[in-house]
Amino acid sequence: MSGVSSKVKLSRVFVPLATLVLLALAACFPGAPTATPEPAIVPVQPKVTAPAPTPSPAATPFPTPTQAPVVEPAPASQVEETQSASESAIITESLPAVSSPVFGDMALLEERAFSYLSELAVDVGVRTSGTELELAAADFLVSRLEDLGYNPEIQDFSWDSPAAEFSLVAPEAETLEVNVLGGTPGGQATGELVFVGLGKPADLPAEGLEGKIALIERGEITFGSKVAEVHNAGAVAAVIYNNVSGPFRGTLGGRGDIPAISLSQADGLRLKELLEQGETVEATVSVQDNALPSRNVIAELPGQGEGVIVVGAHYDTVPDSIGASDNSSGVGALLAIAERVADRSFPFTLRFIAFGSEETGLHGSEHYVDSLTARELEEIYLMVNLDSVGSGSHLRLAGDRWAASHIKETADREGISLELSGRSGRGGSDHANFRDAWVPVLFFMSDDLSRINSPADTMEHINSSLLGDVTALVLDLLENVDQLSGYGP
Hints:
Layout: H1 2-28, H2 79-94, H3 106-124, H4 132-147, E1 153-160, E2 163-170, E3 174-176, E4 179-180, E5 187-195, E6 213-217, H5 223-232, E7 237-241, E8 260-263, H6 265-276, E9 282-288, E10 291-301, E11 308-314, H7 324-340, E12 349-355, H8 363-370, H9 374-378, E13 380-386, E14 395-399, H10 401-414, E15 418-420, H11 431-436, E16 441-446, H12 464-480
Parallel strand pairs: 5-6, 6-7, 7-8, 11-12, 11-13, 13-16, 14-15
Antiparallel strand pairs: 1-10, 2-3, 2-9, 4-8, 5-9, 10-12, 14-16
C-alpha cells in the first residue's frame, strides 16, 4: 500500500526535475544531443464499485444501493489535482471490507422494525406471562417467521407461579390480599403473629420466634435477608408489609426456606396496631405451587461453518401493559433482522429466539439454556439480547468487550449515539442465563426505562429511530463477527 503511493510521488518530483536538468545542459553545451524526457506517469485509478447489496426476502424487497461511479484515468494536466483521490482509492481497495451495506437501508430497517413492534403491541396487545394472551403472541411470531421463510419451532415449558392466601384466625376471621415473594417455597403455616420491625438481628425478640409468624416492615435490608433472619430465629412464615402506600411485589433473590408473602402498607399498619394494643393475632399463611405453561419460539438460519450466534428478545409482558418498549421493541428489531437476512448464509448458524415468561423470572431463557448439553453451549459463540430498546434518546450496550468495542466503533463511525454500560452483561434480562453458562453476551437497551413493567409503556413513547439504530448495528456485527479477535470458542 505504501509502496504504490511512494512510486506515484517520486514520478511527480523526479520526472520534471530531470527535464529541467537536460534543458540546462543543452543551453550550456550547444550542439549536445537533447534527450526527450519520458512522459510523466499518470496513476490509473482503480474502478470503485459499491459492495453488492445483501438480498432480502421477496415479500419485502430492500432497495439496491446506487453503484458508485467508475473513476476514469485523469489526463496529465490533472495529475496534481487528482492525486489524493487516487491514493485514497488505492488504499480503500487494499483494505478488507469491514462494514456492511446495511447503513444505506437505515430508514427501511427502522420502518420494518417499527411495523413489527406495532403489530405486537397494538394488534396482539397485552401478553401476560403464562396466559392465553402470551400464547396468542407466540402464534403471531410463528406466523411472521413462516412468512419470512423460516421453519419456527415451539419449545414448551412450564414454571411455578405460587398462589398465596393470608387468613386471620383471631381476634376475628378475615382474609387479606397478598402477593407471593419470588423464590418462596410452597407450604402452609399457622401461628401467632409477632412484629419484628425491619427484620434485622437487633429487632428480633431475645426469646426467638419458634412457631411464630413474623410481621416485618419493608426497608433497609433485602427481602431475602429479612426472611433468612426470622427463619433462623424459628419463624414458620414471614409477612412483609409495604413502607409506602399500596401493595408490592418482590423476590427473595433465591430459594427461601419458609413461606413469605407481601402485604399492603395499610393492612400491615393495622396488624401492627392490633399487636401494640395487646391483641393476640393468630394467622395462617398458605402458598400453593401452580405450574403455568409457556413457550419459546425458535427459528434457525443454517450456516456454512461451525458455531452459533443467538439473537434473542422476550415477547411477554406484565399484566395490563402492551409493553411497547418492554419488549415489543426488541421483538420488532429481531423480526426486522430475521427479514433482512432470510436468504443469506453466514459462516455460522444464526438462531433467533423469542423467549416466553421473561417478566416472571427469566423462565424462557432459563429453560432454553438448561435444555442444552455442554457441547451445545460451547457451540454458541455469542448471545445478543434485545430488551427495551424503544424509548429515550440513545441506546446502551453492555456485554463482552471484544464484541462491544466493535459495536461502539461502528456506532461512532455511523453517527449512532451509543453508550457503553460497563456492566459486562449483568442485569435482569434473558442474556443473564447465557452469561451464567459462560456464553459471551451483548445486551442492548435504551436509556429510558422509566415506564417499563407498567401500563404507561405505550406507543406514544416509542422513538422509532432507535429501532433502526439497533437493527443496523446487529446486522453489521453479523456481517463482520468472524473477523473479530474474540470470535469462536
